[in-house]
């Protein structure tokens, strides 16, 4: 598809920037790297699913499902009589999800904005997400809409990043790039973005405001192999293709790019062990009940 003809979901007006981002070149880059990203984030999906405890016969809503790996996993867990619905605003990634979906699993995908999508009320047992809920412009409105889709006995489980300083796997390459380019404008603590749910106080406030109860946030620390088993060159290339270091370099000339690439390599080299380049990652796994 071209950018002119690509389908985009209608959504909440305040989410327009995010919808444009995930359907533009950046969304396509994430889609193109889906296999590598899944290798990187697979352990987080395992931790989330272990905590969410999907049971055979349940209906699961997977928000921000991307290229569908988590939806596939949930569908396997609830098969044969359950069902998993993957929802995302990114047509490039949902196209891959539909293409790669294992045959015979009880699942479907919908291109939609979770803030305004008219879910069937009280129709899901589990609302889950791996890094798909930090980008809402009005998170209380979004989670209120999502809670309506849950049965009264329904529950919530999602993974989100903790503070940037606790996630050097993302931030260390960015600091290397900042030796060569101006810092990007800071993202406010209430603005959508990867670290928008880092604050325990804020997450609790949002979920309470949306009507959830029995909220809990469990910290998990885990190594992130940014090389994904491909060695130092793969680690450097990954930092340059997606993520904050990549965004900071957009629009800069080739000589700046080359210098920044050398700095990223120098920064990552001490962490190389064999074909792995592992830096620390830190997440919350958040759980709650609908009522």
TrEMBL record:
CDD domains: AdoMet_MTases. Residues 61-158 form the Methyltransferase type domain. Keywords: Methyltransferase, Transferase. GO terms for biological process: methylation. One of its GO terms (molecular function) is S-adenosylmethionine-dependent methyltransferase activity. SUPFAM superfamilies: S-adenosyl-L-methionine-dependent methyltransferases. InterPro entries: Methyltransf_11, SAM-dependent_MTases_sf. The keyword Transferase applies. This is Methyltransferase domain-containing protein.
